[in-house]
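SAMPLE LOG
Freezer: B-3
Tube label: C17
Construct: single chain, 167 aa
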Amino acid sequence: MFNACLESGSGETLRTVSRVEIDRYVGVWYEIAKIPNRFQKRCAGNTTATYTLHSDGRLSVINQCEESEGAIARVEGLAKITDTVSNAKLKVSFFRIFGLPVYLGDYWIIGLDEDYRWAVVGTPGRKYGWILSRTPFMDEQSRKKVDAVLKENKYRPEDFVSTRHTR
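STRUCTURE (predicted):
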């Protein structure tokens, strides 16, 4: 989500899911919760990420949220798959130098519902993390599964702050 930043790795290696079918992953995802970060500080709620697959295998990324005064903040980026065996490791870019995307942000899919109803995204140093859902709200059973994924990957579920959705 938003401008994921470069971070140094720490401790145990983060484990990703074994396989992501990208054509099933694309589309709109609602942010259910996140570890607070500086690049989403202005977001007050209704946060979404929309992924679209390009013919070259890269993905367009449109992150959008509502600011506290009601304005919509939107940032567009590009993601490339860095692990083509699993498709679970990506690098994202939200800026360009001389017209070329600079891929700095890690985006690792560490949890994924078998029906692609929810996903958990992390970064190797565990400084950033997001819980995503195909709907603005997540049922209790799914949230328990997500929390188990977080714990298995040495994240603390209590560090994730819920995102407000009003639509």
